[in-house]
Design goal:
Blueprint: E1 2-5, E2 14-18, H1 26-49, H2 53-75, E3 80-85, E4 90-95, E5 101-106, E6 112-116, E7 124-129, E8 132-136, H3 142-161
Antiparallel strand pairs: 1-2, 2-3, 3-4, 4-5, 6-7, 7-8
Length: about 170
C-alpha cells in the first residue's frame, strides 16, 4: 500500500494505491526456480547413472509442472485499486485479474468510510455515498483494512474542514 499527501491544483489531495502482498519478488522467484531446477537435475542424474532413466524424465516433467503452476500463481494476482481524493470528488479505480478497469466517482462531502466487523479477521471496508457502496481492499489483511479506514476517515475529515478557496 503506497500513499501520498500533496495538495496542488493538478494533483490529488490524497492518493492510495492498493495491491495484494507478494512475499516473493522477481529475484526470489528466479532463485527459487533455479534452485529447484538444480536439485531436480541432480536427483535425475543420480537415477540416470543408476540406469533408471525413465525417472529422469518424470522428474523433469514434475519440475515443468511445478514451474507452470508457480508461474501461473505468481502472475495471476495483478489486482490493484487506486483511491484519489481531489478538491471536488473522490476517484476509485479497480484493476482486476483479467485486465478489466472500472472507475467510480464519488462526492467526498457525503462519503462514509464503513468498516464492518472492525475487530474480526473477516472485516470488510466500504466507501458509501448516495446509495452507492464500493468494497475496498478485499485482498488486504484485516489490519491493513483497519489502517486504511482510519487514514481515509482522517483525510476526509481534514478535507471537509478545510476552507473552501474563493
Amino acid at each position: 500500500m503506497e500513499h501520498q499527501d500533496s495538495p496542488t491544483p493538478e494533483r490529488p489531495i490524497f492518493e492510495a494505491l492498493l495491491y495484494p502482498h507478494r512475499s516473493l519478488g522477481p529475484k526470489g522467484y528466479a532463485i527459487l526456480l533455479a534452485g529447484t531446477a538444480a536439485i531436480v537435475f541432480l536427483y535425475g542424474m543420480v537415477f540416470l547413472v543408476m540406469g533408471a532413466w525413465p525417472i529422469f524424465g518424470f522428474l523433469g516433467g514434475e519440475w515443468l509442472l511445478f514451474w507452470f503452476l508457480f508461474r501461473k500463481n505468481h502472475r495471476g494476482d495483478d489486482r490493484a485499486e487506486r483511491i484519489r481524493l481531489y478538491a471536488d470528488h473522490l476517484l476509485f479505480e479497480r484493476y482486476d485479474r483479467q485486465g478489466g478497469h472500472t472507475i467510480e466517482r464519488l462526492q467526498p462531502y457525503w462519503l462514509s468510510v464503513i468498516l464492518d466487523r472492525a475487530e474480526e479477521p473477516d472485516n470488510a471496508l466500504y466507501l458509501r455515498s448516495h446509495g452507492k457502496s464500493i468494497a475496498v481492499g478485499a485482498f488486504l489483511s484485516p489490519q491493513e483494512r483497519r489502517d486504511l479506514a482510519a487514514e481515509l476517515r482522517e483525510v476526509l475529515s481534514r478535507h471537509r474542514s478545510a476552507p473552501v478557496p474563493a
